[in-house]
Amino acid sequence: MVLAAGLGTRMRPLTDDRPKALVEVGGRALIDHVLDRLVAAGVTRAVVNVHWFADRLQDHLAGRRDVEIVISDERAELLETGGGLKKARALVGDDPVWVANIDSVWIDRGDALEDLVRLWDPERMDVALLLARRDGSIGWPGRGDGFVDEDGRFRFRGDAPEAPLAYMGVHITRPQVVDDGPEGPFSLSPIWRRLADQGRLFATVMDGGWMHVGDPEAVRDADARLAG
């Protein structure tokens, strides 16, 4: 599932006439960067949620011939990450799925998505996150999300002033994790915190350079890095 329904408020004025998913970096729309990665990892069918400039995004996605696109329509109400996945449950099914944001672009020195597949073990985990090192990242203003223990379990920063790793917008999950979520909008974050406490949240760290493309300055910086 590709989460593409956001308003892109921080990206204005670039999102005054288009969804954030269609802002271009390195001459390619953000959503195409993500879909290209997923297709290379073997994805043949992608559920994409839409809201802001939904028609324009659907028209763009209709041009893809390498992956089947299924639309989860959030025109009536923007549902956030957890609510969006819950609304799309009938479309994604019950097997483990990729879930990806559209504002993440990266240059890896290996194969980050394959590393996440190798980590994934549904007997031990409900969610597996792809993380990036904050050092050398573009566009990430935060203090880091947390740490990874030696066995791959993820723990949140908690009271620590900062952490070296940030969630870079891609994970594998059992979609059932949202089944008990409320109706309407809700975030995945509280679910992840509960799963971390239960030892069911794992992560791997991407070897490469991550670009969190969340505002016009990050677009310029990412363009420069991709060009270099």
Characteristics of this structure?
228 residues, alpha/beta, globular, 7 helices, two-stranded antiparallel sheet, seven-stranded mixed beta sheet, Spore Coat Polysaccharide Biosynthesis Protein SpsA, Chain A
Give a nutshell description of this structure.
The chain is α/β, with parallel strands linked by helices and 228 residues long. It has helices at 30-40, 54-61, 80-87, 89-92, 112-119, 189-197, 216-227; strands spanning 2-3, 24-25, 28-29, 45-50, 68-73, 97-101, 104-108, 127-133, 146-148, 154-156, 165-173, 201-205, 208-212. It has a 7-stranded mixed β-sheet, with helices on both faces. It has a two-stranded antiparallel sheet with strand order 2-3.
Question: Could you describe the 3D structure shown?
Answer:
With 228 residues, the chain is of the alpha/beta class. It has helices spanning 30-40, 54-61, 80-87, 89-92, 112-119, 189-197, 216-227; strands at 2-3, 24-25, 28-29, 45-50, 68-73, 97-101, 104-108, 127-133, 146-148, 154-156, 165-173, 201-205, 208-212. The strands form 4 sheets. It has a 7-stranded mixed sheet with strand order 5-4-1-6-11-8-12, sandwiched between helices. A two-stranded antiparallel ribbon has the order 2-3. Strands 7-13 form a two-stranded antiparallel sheet. β4 (45-50), α2 and β5 (68-73) form a beta-alpha-beta unit.
Main sheet specs? 7 strands, mixed
Instruction: Provide the number of structural domains.
Output: 1
In CATH, what is the class? Alpha Beta
Total helical elements: 7
Count of DSSP strands: 13
Secondary-structure element series: EEEHEHEHHEEHEEEEHEEH
Terminal Cα separation, in Å? 31 Å
Mean pLDDT: 95
Q: What portion of residues is helical?
A: 25-40%
Radius of gyration: 17 Å
Fourth-tier CATH superfamily name:
Spore Coat Polysaccharide Biosynthesis Protein SpsA, Chain A
Which sequence of strands runs across the widest sheet? 5-4-1-6-11-8-12
Unreliable stretches: none
